[in-house]
Every structure is written in structure tokens, then in C-alpha cells.
Amino acid sequence: CGLSSRHNMPTIITFDQPLFWKASEIVNCVPDDSPIRNVILLLGTFHTFMNLLGAIGSLMDGSGLKEIMETVYGENAVTHMLSGKAVQRAFRAHLLVDQCLTRQIVAKIVEDEPGFQDQVAELERLYVLMEAGECDLMSLLESDCIDRIHNTLTLKKDELARTSKTSKLWVNYQHMIGIARALVAADRMGSWEMHLSAVSACLPIFAAAGHPNYLKSAHLYLQKMYALKDDNPEVHQKFQSGFHVIRRSSQYWAGLGSDLVIEQTLMRSLKSQGGLTRGSGMSEHQRTVWAMSSTVSSTYNLAMQDLTARSYTTSEQHKELSASRVRRDETDVSKVAEKLDSFTPFSADESLRNIITGINANEDVNVQDLFEIGKDIVQKMDGQPVFSYSHKRSLKAKTLASSKNVKVSADRSIDPALLFQRCLVVSQTGDLRLDDVMSYELCLYPMSLFEGKGILRQADKPQLSEALRNHVKTKSDSAVTQTVPVTEHIVLDGGSLLHRLKWKEGCTYSSIADDYA
After folding, report:
1. pLDDT tens for residues 408-461?
2. Which alpha helices (H) appear in 280-369, and where do they start and end?
3. What does the DSSP 8-state code read for residue 44?
4. 3-state helix, strand, coil in the chain (%, to 5)
5. 419-424 — which CB contacts under 8 Å span 24+ positions?
6. Contact 297, 265 (CB under 8 A)
């Protein structure tokens, strides 16, 4: 506030969710005549986008999306992607899956309406003309074929959503990816209205996924921003002109959220060579001097670039359009499409199921109605106190993964593998005996046979064979015999025994069984 009054500028600060909420509480608690009341708080778009990707991953957990992404990325990477951490890879994987799902829907439309293919061909022709410079963008956007294709796709998706619960879930998944696209496009183009619309569309997703912190923060943020037109018309006009984002180049698709720029520039220079973490110290005085001198340092930097005739520029070609990236996208799309063709979510089966394993969901699973559930939760927030409202965990959508968990109370459940690990840790501390822990059935499925979520482990036949050889006692008589304790039960793959025992012609079943024993 002191800097703003000195330079006669409004105070606009961008925070991620925890600090945004704390700053909002501070603004709400200060006296009415305090200059802090005039501070405009922005909720970081990049962190909101990360949370949106994490909410999508939570809602689609157990649906088969993880296994589909693993055709392109590694298992550990997909785990981070679905949590919203590996943002670039996560968004690219979602776009690949969305593209393949759209291909399946288009194939169904062409099968029902052969004339639809002519509309797609017309759009491709206009696009080629625009690339060649014979047609401008506005004439392409004003073409009737775009509206016809959009309306046909929307009607087909609505029809598929009514066919089965599984189809509705994946249609809603495409809708969520569309909202994520809009959130990114709003920043890239600097569209304030699109930004507010996209954040508003995120509220039901946050509510259904059980992300109450971002739900409350985004709800408060939208109310403040919609009131900005009356509270601070000057700043509202700046935001309408696209100044709510930062542009590091003059290209059209180059707008970035201020929190992302802070990560890319301020935090990067803070932790790189010459930054505060490289020997200068992190005291309050050092941080203030370093931050306030950054504008002077950038002026010297530009002057040195002019003196040495060197400058940092961006290429005209986007890195996503390079030949290697295009080839990689085509390869990955073909992998995902092959997987989805084998396990299509758009089937006539009315049940809700994992499209990869085929496991049906329990009756209480309602994740396919996530938008209806989310909107009901948002409506219940209206009229409630902002800082004292408590979100109920039981209201969120029940996912396919939650039906495979162990219930520990009436409204809470836990992953069986996590429960098993916790019990083992407690048993090591001496509070519980390991024998007592193992006396309970801690999992809904035997962990020795299943990876989890209904996926069988890969058979390790050499290890099984070695264990059997060590277990069975061999007697060195004239005729070598093997004795197996009667109380033991051993499960063997029949195919492996066929390679080890020769069936003599005329053998009976009992004699073959005796040979096995």
C-alpha cells in the first residue's frame, strides 16, 4: 500500500489459494478507512488450473483413464499428472484422450448421418485456404459449417449421455477438458470475460471433487471481480483491455497468468546463480533489496544487450508446431486411439464401469452426475457467511475408486493398500503385534495377487518355481520321490507343468495326477 500511494497506482496482488484466503481475511478485518481495503486480490490462474487438473483426476479415478494415459506415459508420471502436479504433461495427455473420444463420436455421427462427412471436408478445405493466405480467419469463423458441426456434435453427446452411465461420465469428462481449455485460452488471449466465465464453470467441478478450499476461494474471487466494475472502474477497464495477464512478447497467444510469471522469472532468478539462495542470504533486508533492485537490474540488462548487439527474442514458430513434436503427437494419438477402440466408453451397457477392467460400480457411485452434484453444493453456499462456511465431505460425488475402498466410518473410506501400510508401520512400533495385524482381512482383494483397482499382478514363474524347489524335500533314493506336506495348498500354472512332465500314451488322469504330486 505504501508503494502504491507513492506511485499513485492501485494495489493489485496475485496469490495462490492459501495466501489468497489469508489476505482476504486480512482485508475483511481491517478498519473501513484503512488503505488495505482498496487492495485488489487476484486468485492465481495457473494454480487454479493445477487444482482443476487435480479435480478431474480425482473424479475420473477408477474409470480407466489412468490405464489409458499409461500407454503414452510411465506409471509414476501418470500418478503425478492425475494429481495436477505435472501440468504440461497432464494437459497434453488429457487433450490426446479428448481428441480420440471426439474421433469415436464423429465416427458414430458419420455412421448415422453420411452427410456429416461433407461438412467436415468443407471445413478442412477452408482451413487449407486460410493457411495458404487465400482466406482470412473471420470468413472461416463465420462459415455455416462450423455451427452445423458444433450443433451436431453437441446433440450426439447429449444422446450418448442418455444411453448409459459410463457414456455420461466420459461426456462430462470432455466437458471438463473444455473448461480447462477455456481457462488456458482466456489467459493466452487476455480475455477478461472468458476468464471469469471459465473460473465460474470450475466451481461445480471443485465442489463435486471435494476441493472445498478452492471452491470457497474461487467463489469469493468471482464475487469481488464482478463487483469491480462499480468498486474500481479504472482497474476494471484495464482488465477488460487484457492487462490482468502478463505478456513477455508481443505475440497474440502469449498472455500468461501473473502467478505463472512469478514462478518462471522471479522464483527462477531467486534460486538460480546469483540469486539469494546462492550465498547472499534470505533475511528480510536482503529480500527487500533484491526485489526492489530488480527493475534497475533489468534496465542495465537491456542497456548491455543494446551495447553488445545481442538480444533475447522468441521464435515465430511455436514449439508445438515443430516437425518432431507433430510426429510425436501423431504417434501418441494412434496409441491412445488403439486403446480406446478396444475399450470404448460409448456402449449400450447401462451400468457404470471401469472401461479397462470392466468392473461395475456400486449402487452408491454417482460420479456421472458430477455437474448436477456440484451445482447443488454451490447453490447451498449462497447466502452463507464467507469465512465461517464449512463444506461437508459427504456431499461430494462418489467415484468408482471410492467403491473399492474400505469403510472406516459412516462417511469416510480409505484405500486398502494405504490401510495395510499404516497397520504394518504401527506393528513395527510395538503397539501392535504383527500376528494380530495379519489376523484381519485388511483388503477387499489379496494384495499378493492384485496390483490394485482390479488389475492382476504379472506372474513371476521363475520365482514361484524356485520357492517350490526350496520348499519340497528331495530324497536321494533309487527312485527319486518328492514329498509335499498334506496341509499345504499350492497353486500352479497348468501350462508350466506341461513343459516339465511328459504325458505317456495311454496314461489315465489319476496316473498323471500322481506324477504331478
Report:
1. 666 666 776 677 777 777 777 766 777 777 776 666 566 667 765 556 777 777
2. 284-292, 294-308, 323-342
3. -
4. 60, 5, 35
5. 419/443, 420/447
6. no
